[in-house]
């Protein structure tokens, strides 16, 4: 807002002090500026009535904006608390999200879920370790569109038990004519804990940290 007709040096000093040090102008600061402008206006050139009315309208709008901002801040705080409660309530439940990582327990098998966009004549799943090396390749035939699962017995291509840990996998599917079918990996597991330290709760699922916002399905066991 432009401040005009302030003739006295003291009024200029007051206006300058309101903005020093990068201070955010509040509703009280605005009111002080308006009063200083009225007190120090040039008697020979008093403030125009329309201009004064416009400044009062601006003052009122500023108060409404401050009130709205305060309410939005409270809503964000409440939403954060609700997210924390929602995340904690998922402990012990099975969740599903998009991803291409599977957690293998030491000496055990692991299910690898994925999504097919159409019926597939052949499906190949390539499993890689953290270094990007191929550990195992799985195959399936004649699978329907939708969610599917292949079970990895936890062994590598040589028949040896693979070390427990996280592995990545890739899905390649073709139809009866050999045409590629779009497919995507899924991550599915039981929530064993929740990390509430960051801006968004992270669900602990088999060694993975899954953002609450990325969860697509929840199942009760």
Write the layout of secondary structure elements.
Layout: H1 9-19, H2 27-39, H3 49-89, E1 94-98, E2 101-104, E3 110-116, E4 120-128, E5 134-143, E6 146-152, E7 165-174, E8 183-195, E9 202-205, E10 208-211, E11 217-219
Antiparallel strand pairs: 1-8, 1-11, 2-7, 3-6, 3-8, 4-5, 4-7, 8-9, 9-10
Describe this structure in words.
By secondary structure, the chain is α+β, with helices and mostly antiparallel strands. It folds into two domains: 75 residues, no CATH class; 126 residues, Immunoglobulin-like (Sandwich). Strands 1, 3, 6, 8, 9, 10 and 11 form a seven-stranded antiparallel beta sheet that branches. A four-stranded antiparallel beta sheet has the order 2-7-4-5, with no helix packed on it. Helix 1 packs antiparallel against helix 2 and helix 2 packs antiparallel against helix 3. The radius of gyration is 32 Å and the shape is elongated. The two termini are 61 Å apart. The N terminus is likely disordered.
